[in-house]
Amino acid sequence: MPSSKTSRTVEVPHRTGPVSNSLAASRLGTWSIIFFTVAAAAPETVVGGGAVSGFAVSGVNGIPVGYLAVALVLGLFAVGYVTMARHVENAGAFYAYIAKGLGRVPGTAAGGVAVLAYTMVQISLIGGFGVGAADFLRQVGGPDLPWWLFAGLGLGMVGLLGLLRIDVNGRVLGVLLIAEIAVILFYDFAFLTDPAEPGVSLTTLNPAQLGTGAAGVILVIAFTGFIGFENSTVLAEEARDPRTVSRATYLSLVVIGGLYGFSTWAMTVATGPEHIVAQAEEHSTELLFALASDRLPAGLVTTGSALYVTSLFAGMLSFHHVCARYFFALGREGIGPRALAATSSRTSAPLAGSLAQSALTVLVVGLFAVTGWDPVTYLFFWGASGGALGVLLLVTATSMAVVGYFLRVPAPGHGIWRTLLAPGSAALVLGGVLFLTIRSFGTVLGVPPGDPAAWVLPGAYLAVVLAGLGWGAVLRARYPDSYARIGMGARSITIRRSEELIDAG
After folding, report:
1. Which residue numbers delimit the Amino acid permease/ SLC12A domain (predicted)?
2. Which of 121, 234, 355, 487 makes the best surface tag, with the fewest CB within 10 Å?
């Protein structure tokens, strides 16, 4: 149990026994962090899956401009986000930002929301990977094997890599990501050089598309594709310096936004702007490869299908690291079980957090395998959509937290634009997107009006927020030492060890 005794600060070593309570510093450069953030976004999965589903669900062809609009909004958000990153070095990024900017009790609630949101995204990708790998094996003439077998194999590989050095994982993600983006751009070139009628048209990039009644659905679907760009600050403790995080965040947004906007527009050129919705409804997630097969050799289409599967794997791996680090951060600072703060003495990876995330995934995948529930609709699509809602909630709250932090903490070197105007504007815009998301969430899930799913998933976040606020209040009243560590990052270990020495003495 957390100690309630008052304590003084005593510097003590960070390592005791076989585990460490701090992550390895200075292992990740700008490009390694970009590989993690862009791989989490899973570009080919978004272009070939999420965007196509967006065309079909929304019934409008304005998805490309939606990606560009969200990129601009998140660019505005990133101004304050990376500015505050110089003052917050914590593997539980959103949780720590909100704790420092809005208070420790809201920060505790944010920690619960982050764990739920990122776990939903990571597990949804496991389901998508299992189905995608099984489909690909059948496509190349292999046996018809159950999806959960491939999900289990993918989970085992991710669990193993999650225990290795973070920079090793960065190189794995880099190789997969470069190959994936190269194939997407090759497809785009083929689409633009062989357009359908009426030729190369910019209709789907017209901002007026966002003035229609489907604007909410367009923005929600587009935002889902960006989940992961914010993970640069989750890796801040392992980055070489704060500027590394800033550069990686901005470059990741440019890569993701530019690729999504350009590639989805290229698909509308290949089908014709007026036919993209019908084609998306007919071919579903096979549309990208159906269009490519009409223009490119079969080998390149097969390669693209294989990279679609590896795109899902890269996303699984990246989000596994994010989830593990959130578990680690919450355990280290006394919000969750302290055992979650254990790291490997050999690699400094968050050992307990990684194992906890793997165990959760096994339970959920096992439940779907036993019950026979549809893994595509209920695990992959609904899981990703539910996770996106949680991340949007966190991004909005973090924008407000940046404003709250700099109103209290003078930052003369940053300027009012970076500390107040940009994050304040982002909070207003993101708040509007969040409102539209909740209002149209049933449409996003593809369920009829009145379906319980439209409010159960948002309701789950409300329950987590209320529980987090309650637990934060308990920590404040009964365990003030643990409460004081909330959001402090690696510094919380020094304080905790000080308490332990005083208690022992």
Report:
1. 58-386
2. 355
